[in-house]
């Protein structure tokens, strides 16, 4: 690692920490020549191919995932930091699977599962683009299924609190 101040090649690591939100390792370094300190980030090169609907393959890019999540979460209670954390979680899940390729359908389902837990409006927005609803009835069916799930969760929660 070259020192950004004097361009000397040798440096020592003084501190290492996980930067979870960036899927990286943050290293604090000290140049052995000029003794100035600087920070580096080491990231894993994730090479997963996304199999698109039209048959093409495209490299997986976490920033593209963030842009899609940003669009779905705009004007909701989900902060940009939560979006970055969610994108990092999804990326980490993909890395743990150790797959070389993923279908857009599977990736979309993973994203929707996470969004459904965070915010139903963001989930519906993402589902509209991902599932490509052709008629209003498809959208209404999706909204109704979420409403039923939320009612069931509310009933389960109130039943549990009554038993206490």
Descriptive labels:
three-stranded antiparallel β-sheet; 5 helices; 164 residues; three-stranded mixed β-sheet; alpha+beta; 6 strands; 2 domains
Quickly count the domains: 2
The description of the largest β-sheet is: 3 strands, antiparallel
Q: What is the H-and-E element order?
A: EEEEEHHEHHH
Numbering strands along the chain, what is their spatial order in the largest sheet? 1-2-3
Distance between the termini: 60 Å
Strand content: 15-25%
Work out the number of β strands: 6
Mean of residue pLDDT? 88
Shape descriptor reads elongated
* Unreliably modeled segments: none
Structure in a nutshell:
The protein is of the alpha+beta class and 164 residues long. It folds into two domains: 11-43; 49-153.
């Amino acid at each position: 690692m070259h020192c950004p101040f004097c361009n000397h090649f040798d440096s020592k690591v003084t501190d290492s920490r996980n930067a979870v939100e960036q899927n990286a390792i943050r290293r604090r370094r000290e140049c052995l020549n000029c003794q100035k300190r600087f920070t580096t980030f080491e990231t894993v090169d994730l090479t997963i191919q996304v199999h698109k609907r039209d048959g093409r393959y495209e490299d997986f890019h976490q920033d593209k995932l963030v842009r899609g999540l940003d669009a779905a979460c705009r004007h909701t209670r989900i902060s940009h930091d939560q979006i970055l954390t969610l994108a990092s979680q999804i990326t980490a899940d993909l890395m743990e699977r150790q797959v070389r390729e993923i279908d857009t359908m599977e990736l979309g389902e993973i994203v929707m599962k996470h969004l459904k837990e965070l915010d139903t409006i963001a989930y519906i927005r993402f589902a509209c683009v991902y599932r490509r609803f052709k008629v209003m009835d498809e959208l209404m069916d999706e909204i109704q299924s979420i409403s039923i799930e939320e009612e069931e969760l509310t009933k389960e929660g109130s039943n549990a609190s009554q038993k206490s």
